């Protein structure tokens, strides 16, 4: 019998007895069975958890007590000291014969405090043997207002004092000092003699200072805050914040600058000052104002950190540049199809590709207007601190050459400090290893290599300007330009007679226009062109003819291959592969086996100079995101929250800029590695673990609020200590075009329709409608915008597409694209500012001849534009289209067939382009009540021709086909009813009727019975049976036709249902849907909403689902009930559902399990 | 089928032990941390306790397999032998589907039970001192001449609460060959 429970287990006599005696009775269980109980063995009585270890636990208490007492003693001694001094003062004064006034005493106290307060806020811990001794130091601290700790605790201690540092402590000095300054005792003595707290930097232990250059800055900071009488001590993060202010703030505000400079640059004081003046001069000519530069560099200090971060980030500039480029040069999707038909892909062999790359772009742009710097070693960096850890983003060739000599022999390299070796390529098989000033290098290392290095700041406006000019030139010369980044592009010059000449011409133009140089590589494919450029640099051009490729490659080292980064290089080197020739010898299968299919394939091809990629004008974006990995430090959850908010706003802004919405949100977090110390790079992320999680939403979004909610949820699920977060990034994938999004444009629908209804009385036919000024203008705006974008009509005319299917999809795309582009055109365009008439005419006058227009493209254009074109071509368009359409009936959407008729319909059909079946139905909108006539679109024409004047306001309700009306989306229907002014009261009745009766099959029921509610009710009931039958379940079909309260919810979850493909459970869907909670909330409730079909459908949906789950998935039932209850706190709709659902389910559970859920019995019953 | 039965038996043994550990029926020293299905669980160190649970489960298995028994409960009793809590396992074995399943899938689902059970503490109120416990099975018919160790079982008295109990679901899984549910029953206040 082990351990403690011995007696308990054994003493229970029932172990033996019960099994023999067979005591018990038959259970009257519900199922009528017999219950058996086994009481044998181990009826261990539990006992309360024992409280042991009390004796040992006392040690901690003892220590705490001891510390407390010691500090009390210390304080007492200190105050005694003060008192005695004050008494001295009193005595002294009285001995002069004057009675001591209160004033005098106070003065004495002040003087005294000046002295005693010297070390106010400083708390030291003395480690090991010191001179002066432990005891003496204690006395000193006592006298001068400091604190002295007998036991080390990083919460209290601010400085560690020691004379010698043993190796063991050095080795792990971080854990020893916990990041606190370790200073020599002379610091205290000297400080006292000077009467102020001296900077600790010169008292820091050399060994620590040398090993950790950052340490010294940290210490310097401590003093400076001290001098600024910033006595609030001193969480480490506060250190960081202020430190960042110091180090990055060479132009600090006047009251602190002098002292800080002294401190900061004490070792290299002169040089530091020079640096400062350099920067200030650079800024004088540069763009950023000094005050902007002097901002805080950490999430803690700066409320707008994220915005500022991206404003000043080079990577951000490069990242967002593409959106800008696409917007500017209009390389949208439509060009993609077009670009392929000009060239067939089979003549791959004889392509000529040019790779144009600006030479050290960031440097040359930044100094293009400063001829005095030509020929000097230059680097671009956001900071010019000689000892700084800012990374160089670009350096010119003069600078790059530096360091070669220095490093020529490998012996010298190792004598250099560790941080440099990182930048030094270790190539064991070569004798010569070198390192120059490179991008990515810390500035202090660069300065070490090249002391004369001039550092210039970023010039983002310049970059944009030069990049635009650069691409202008490329586009001028060639149609097929693939932008790689802002300074680098591939150009397909197949067919050009003399590419060399073209290259030199382009280079010359670039040089003339931008004052920057570019290099060009020419070859048969993208890969070789890129390699050629390497050879061409700087400021040159190089051509690799197809027959030279093999020769050229065989001499090339693998690291020069694009796509071979250092890790891949390392792996190849380990296999003894150093150049392309060796690589060529390896069969493809082995490469694929070793490096994965894709990489292996790439290596195999690249080693042979094979590259089948096309020059693509447009590359679809797969993801949009933003990431901040620098300067991220949090103190409290609210900091993190604020940061996430800005991050979401940033990403949302980028999505909006690109007209995209996304479904999957991924939050990436960099978490400080366990035991990692403060990174070498100032405010950098250091050594981190990368965490990431993503959530896929039911529907795509670009709304910052929605994103924030989801992001916060992901963030919370990490359960991180916020102090350990070093970087965060948010990425949105599964992108869609932001056109058909119901949620973002739901409101617009209504406006559009209202607007149309208002216009329709004036202009009955499409052409007449154009007379309405504002519509006209908006169309014109739309049209002209399209024309601005590379004359769409021309382009489409040129391209011939083989299959009908492709054509269709292409048109869809185009339509989407044009809507996205001119989002404000057709929808809210009615409110757009007027365009000048002149411009409008210009656009119209430059139209191509009608015969040049592609009929099929015309077909797919939005009706407004058609109408506008029709106007421009004086009626020819519509006339032709109507004849054209007869050829294509059946295949096309009805939308297309009916569009030349009435703009109202077309606009309607646009608003609900999600549901195809609406297209047809709308044409039946207004007609007589005869059910037989409700089918067939002949009504359209009868409406148009027969009624002549479709003045809605003059229509009576009897003319409205209720069946059709109820098919319409809720908001559209509301609009129509509202506009039927004459029968307002009837209209209201109708609405309720329509709401109740919202399925196709109901129609006839209604008509036959004349609205007899009894029959109707039966019918509804029949519909609600078996909502979960079938695949997909019946409710999905049903929900499509529903309107009113709850319909939005049903439609939303039915979308989610499809998005999940095979959802495991309703709770999954609900859980995901909770992110978009507002969509689950019915916006407006009619009077009789509780009787409405949609509400009942919702209710039945849950009821039936839960009933089906009760017998074998209580957990699911429980979760669903809880979820719905949570929703119930926010909407009456859900409250009602809970009120009905919960008791019902409780009863059912009781029936099966003999008892109900716990929490369900309380709380919501009394709503 | 054998595989399912043995897996289920193992699962029940571990789960019952875990219930005892979570509820603190025995002092913590009685248990040691082990890994089962790659999840940390508490396992009894005392051989007799292990033996008791093992024999109860294995002897009930034939009935569970035949679906004569679909409910197995760990009942915690107070001094006066009134039940305080019931941890009820509802088990449904579908022999007709026993062929087509992968063991890993079921293991995966069962693992969740241990995880949920280990964190069930907040649902539960502290037990009064001097509790005992028993394993109860509910059968639909008289098991009759059960093979093997069936003779261990004795008919139990109906220890019912005055009010219908309150149910807190812990975890449910349903798969083709096997449905398992675990929920806690308390007397309602």
Automatic annotation (TrEMBL), chain B:
Gene3D superfamilies membership: HORMA domain
InterPro entries, alphabetized: HORMA_dom (IPR003511), HORMA_dom_sf (IPR036570), Mad2-like (IPR045091)
Domain of life: Eukaryota
Residue ranges of every copy of the HORMA domain listed in the record: 2-184
Pfam families in alphabetical order: HORMA (PF02301)
Transmembrane segments: none
PROSITE patterns for this protein: HORMA
Record GO cellular component, one term: zeta DNA polymerase complex
PANTHER family tied to this protein: MITOTIC SPINDLE ASSEMBLY CHECKPOINT PROTEIN MAD2 (PTHR11842), MITOTIC SPINDLE ASSEMBLY CHECKPOINT PROTEIN MAD2B (PTHR11842:SF10)
UniProt-recorded name of the protein: HORMA domain-containing protein
UniProt source species: Ceratopteris richardii (Triangle waterfern)
Organism phylogeny: Eukaryota, Viridiplantae, Streptophyta, Embryophyta, Tracheophyta
